[in-house]
Amino acid sequence: MAEQDQNRIHTAERRQRERDARPLSERLLAALAFLGALPDLLWRRVRRIAPRFRALHREHRAGNFPESDRRLIQLLLLLVGLLPMARSLLRERLFHHRRRSVRADTARRKRVQPAAFVCAALGVAAVTAFFSLYTPATAVRYNGEVLDVVRSRAKAKAVAARVEGLTAETLGGAFALEDGAIRYSARLVRRSEVAAPEELERELTEEIGLVAYGYSLYIDNELVGSTQYEGAIEALLEQIRQASSSADTLSVDFIEDVRVVEGYIPTEQLVNLGRIAEVINSTKSGEVTYTVERGDTWGKIAANNGMSNDELLAINPGYDINKLNIGDVLVLSKEVPYLTVRVTERQNYVEDVNFDINYIDDASMYQGDTRVITKGVYGTADVVADVVYVNGVETERTVISQVMLTAPSTETRARGTKERPSWLPTGSFRWPASGRITSYFGYRNTGIRGATTNHQGIDIACAYGSPIYAADGGTVEYTGYKGAMGYTVIINHGNGYKTYYEHCSSFTCSAGQHVYKGQQIARVGRSGVASGAHCHFGIQKNGTYVNPLRYLP
């Protein structure tokens, strides 16, 4: 065996020496020939060993352990047997390698991701903060001056068009802005600097100066005044309400239709707020009238309205103050207030309750005369009422509840049944003569020498010789001449009243005579101090002269 191996070695060495001794070209050609024949050699080799490999594969699949005497096959079989173990080792190594890689990536991410997240978050926050504070907008210039900044150019142009329209509508004519008066420029501004379109609209109208946004007060559709200050007119009206209010006030309102209208108005209509207050508290043209009722007299109507007879006659020319008819309409004032305040108050007070009267016939007394036998006593009641005042004057009272506190006591009176003489007083007076009043009760300056300046009656101008009648029944106390009073008749009516009839021309009665109401007692003259024929008529009540117009119908 050793010898064979030794021989093979010598043979191989010899062949190597022979190859080395050949020329290079020959060796190249031999190498090329070998390379060209190599595929055939390999193919023949594969064909020879392929059946054997297939047989080995079938035995392996059948679970038999294949065997062979050839070393190459044995080596191949050994490698095939080691393949499962090699696969397991390779899989395990790959698993551990992947696991280490994952751990390394995780550690790297843990190191890298927080920093990346923080940087990204800071970037997003910076961008968000910037765009939350700043925004693209359009600046609007009018005649070179920046008015405001709005969101977009389209909104700015829409505002300019609207201002042109409302200016034309307010002024009642055409209006257009000058070319180039308004300029627009884009810029980046803080969001807080961006104005609403309404603000730009007001600023542009103010710059133009023809119209202004204001608040106008209308009373019964009549414009009182306008102001630019929001809430100023409402505050002024509230001051008027507060001035008329008290702790008992339920409501305060205005009789007129009062409106505050908000909107654009011509600038020339704007007035000072004090001027509006002055107008509200003043009066305007308008009549306050009064309709004459039964029992009214000229003097009574004048006195009830704080006027003299002459003042009432001055605004009612053409009236005869001695002849008023029921239903006549007298003008009390030519002016009425702009604003009429109506106040409703809830009042609580104690009120007297009238007592009943029980009459007992008495034949010793004249008809119409009475005498108190037992005096009555008023009761009291706790009253709750709603009272309405118009400009401080009570116009209505509605009783809500009434609780009796003390009951009234009935009064007993004697009533006369005896037939009454015609000359007894009736308690009321009639006009003594028909004519025009030329001088009223009170102070006067006639310019007539001897005439008193304190006139204690009224002068009724009549034709000379006209009849003079008794104003009420009574007893003639005096007839005669009394100096400046001339021929005078004095009648005592027996009830505390006396009447005087002066400047007579003659008498138709005598002292001590009983006269009835309406009986002729004298004739008109001009005796004493008188500038013309007239009847001076005076009334005394308990010895004091009083104004006769308060007692005449």
Descriptive account of the structure:
There is one protein chain. The chain is of the alpha+beta class. Among the domains are: 68 residues, no CATH class; 54 residues, LysM domain (Membrane-bound Lytic Murein Transglycosylase D, Chain A, Roll); 76 residues, Resuscitation-promoting factor rpfb (Resuscitation-promoting factor rpfb fold, Single Sheet), CATH 2.20.230.10; 115 residues, Glucose Permease (Domain IIA) (Distorted Sandwich), CATH 2.70.70. Helix content is 33%, strand content 35%. The chain is built from 9 helices and 27 strands. Helix 4 crosses helix 5. The N and C termini lie far apart (184 Å). The model has no long low-confidence stretch (mean pLDDT 81).
How would you summarize this macromolecular structure in one to three sentences?
The protein has 553 residues and is an alpha+beta fold. It has helices spanning 2-21, 24-61, 71-133, 153-171, 197-208, 232-243, 273-280, 298-304, 309-314; strands at 134-142, 145-150, 182-190, 211-219, 222-227, 249-254, 258-266, 283-291, 329-337, 341-353, 357-366, 370-374, 379-390, 393-406, 411-418, 436-439, 442-443, 454-455, 458-461, 467-469, 474-481, 487-492, 497-507, 514-515, 520-524, 534-541, 544-546.
